[in-house]
Prior knowledge:
- The chain has 22 helices and 14 strands.
- The protein is an alpha/beta fold and 597 residues long.
- The chain has three domains: 3-88, 2-Layer Sandwich (Gyrase A, domain 2), CATH 3.30.1360.70; 122-390, HUPs (Rossmann fold, 3-Layer(aba) Sandwich); 445-588, Isoleucyl-tRNA Synthetase, Domain 1 (Orthogonal Bundle), CATH 1.10.730.
- The strands form four sheets. It has a five-stranded parallel beta sheet with strand order 7-6-5-11-12, with helices on both faces. Strands 1-2-4-3 form a four-stranded antiparallel beta sheet.
- Helix 4 crosses helix 22 (565-588) and helix 15 (406-424) crosses helix 16.
- The two termini are 35 Å apart.
- Mean pLDDT is 93; it is low at 396-401.
Amino acid sequence: MNIEKRIRDTVIRYLDEKSLQPFPPEALQIQDTRREFSGDITLVVFPLVKILRKSPEETGKIIGGYLRDKIDWIADFNTVKGFLNLEFSKGFWVKVLDELSDSAVPGSKEPMENQPVYMVEYSSPNTNKPLHLGHIRNNLIGFALSRILGSRGYQVIKTNIVNDRGIHICKTMLAWQKWGKGITPEKAGKKGDHLVGDLYVMFEQHYKKEIESLVSGGMKEDEARRKAPLMQEAQEMLRKWEAGDPDTIALWKQMNNWVYDGFGETYAELGVSFDKIYYESETYKLGKEIVLDALRKGYVYRREDNSVWADLTGEGLDEKLLLRSDGTAVYITQDLGTARIRYDDYHFDRHIYVVGNEQNYHFQVLKIILKKIGYPWADNLYHLSYGMVELPEGKMKSREGTVVDADDLIGEMKKTAREMGDELGKLDTLGDDEKKDVFRKVGLGALKYFILKVDPKKNMTFNPRESIDFNGNTGPFIQYTYARIRSVMRKAEERGIPVDEKPGSGYLPNDKEILLMRSLMRFPGVLDDAAEMMNPSLLANYVYEIVKAFNQFYHDYSILNEPAVEARRFRIALAVQVEKTIYRAMYLLGIDLPERM
């Protein structure tokens, strides 16, 4: 039932009947009624004031009266200044629930013709360290956004770029050669990404000592960083890698494979996946070709030291290095190649980079350079810039090994879920495997929801204990409400009460039920907004709103013990719709729901 369209069309009909000035329907603003006013939906009448040549209050009364006469489900109205608040009849809400019950997948939208292709890049790890808390936020935002976009009918390609080459990789390789003593993940009893991360920290510790020694000898710190023996060796290893030195390539492949295996385990735990994975070691080659072609055409220039730069001063920026003096590629070189390859592969209509806000300048530069060298599709690139995630004790630092490891955090969340579940004692009747599955879903659900309920653009502080609270705006609270509804349905079947998703027509809902249905009606619009604004937090907080409304209703009214058959039938149908909506919303967020808690 397209309520807004019906209201707009009826207002336009009134203007036509009165031979008043034509008015575009889309200019009529319709919004939710503010809580302090009586009504179910509000029409802003200010745009009509000049046409009717009446005051806002009089305009509201005229339009409200006409709508009440022409639309049978508008029972009453009131005008507050320029806001016309429309009240629906109780019978209308029965029709709403009846229509909602016809949808197998709440909030779904029919696939579009010639579906626009949206490519969403997320994760983008470096192969010199394991995934950490920041990567978790990245992956969860990207995966949830991909599902939300898919629910609106877009064709979505989930992609990842693995930064598997460069100076940071050479640092870990050099550390393994110098201090690794032939260590492997199997010998160390560690995941491969953790072992390589340890080597990276080891390199930085030795490198820091070399810098301190050079500085104490009178060298400036910037010069010491460049001339430290370890950095010189790492740079030489990078040159060997780009030259295809067999021994260097063999070690690189071996260590990267260790990391890939580790990443795969973490992605599986998080429940995220990709349709296509690209590797910087492959895409940087095309990036270098693009830069050299742009050099020949005069779009970029070469300095005396042989390095290649783009002059962006005309765009209000500075000059950007594209190739070092020794011919090796930099980070943006790879991104130029990756963008071109992806467009050639999929001809995307929109490319969304889910990358932290510390890279805002990088993506601004990337887009300008691509346009400057002749790629019109660069206008379709969008940087979803998300804020940093910190712990209560402050920021994390990779080089110092003080990051919160993703695997450790996932394990800690499952452990905390088990401890809290044991305290509550509600799962005592379940077997060990069932309990383990519930604790996994609750622990990960707490982690995912706590992160996704925050607007991506905002910085956030992750508090593990707070996230797993069974009360308030948390994943476990939502999961518990879902499990509560599933319990009601199981009890209904045990008692032989039909679990009919159709509400019937012999019952008029109360205010708490209407409030709940009003929230259910908003689901498609919330999904549209979340997709358009690329903001999964809109959906996360909407689910919490639904859960709060259901619990208020459930606290005051019985479902299965209601003696009136029609009322019980209506409430069962309403509970089923709430259950389906919670399930669908949490699925789009990538959060699993336990049947029992």
